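A protein record pairs a chain with a discrete description of its three-dimensional fold. The shape at a given residue is found from the number at the same position. Here is what such a record looks like in full:
>
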Amino acid sequence: LQSAKRYLSAGLAPSMFKSYTFAWHKFAKFCSFHRTPLFPVLVSMVVAFITHCFDNLNLSPSYIRSLVAGINFFSLLHQPSPTRSLFSNNPVIKLLLKGIHNTRPTTPDFRKPITFPILVDLLSTLSRSSYSPYFKSLLSNTFLLAFYGLLRLGEFTSPNNTFNSSRDLAVSELSFHSDFYSLSLKHSKTKGACTIIVACNNGPFCPYLAMFKFALLRHKGSLPILFLTPEGCIMSASWFLKHLRLLL
């Protein structure tokens, strides 16, 4: 049974498992504060927890749903004879989640995606800038990689300035082929570790040629880091966003 639990946990993407674990710990603290045993997981305690998150912590309905999903996962994982799914089947919890959603309408997301016209403007502005050839190559390449590879920011940048071989991209994970390149990701939001394929499109903004030119310009040396800034540091999310905003 312990092995089965381990395999079930491994079936989740690392980021999802981390999110579920955070939700479970938060619920466990809530139960402890109210001097209520964690097991069996009581619907009444989940209802109280949801209400507490909404009324006292001012959390959004969508975030509360993610917390309940985490509680549901660990409830099913640890209880020998769990009740039916808290998240998808229990009518009380479903009605409560619907009620708090209706009480606070969803705020529109004003963030704009990087569309192809915006990408072209970014690359054109970058090419006319006074940055060094390496700097231009690094940014244009990562812009094209993120766009054509459908990558999230955290999948090709580092959260800090320290290289972590189990998380960050290394030179050895990049492989060129006749008309495409492959890049092995250490983690992704939906699939965990996976390999993406980015093809040559023979256009003026070709991601394959951009990566090939970057590989030729990249700093030589013993550092395994794929995306190095001109200062010789790993490309962090904050560094990338800073220069992206300057170019927009």
Q: What stands out?
A: The chain has a mean pLDDT of 88. The first helix runs from residue 2 to 10. The two ends are 53 Å apart (CA to CA). The domain at 2-103 is CATH 1.10.150.130 (DNA polymerase; domain 1).
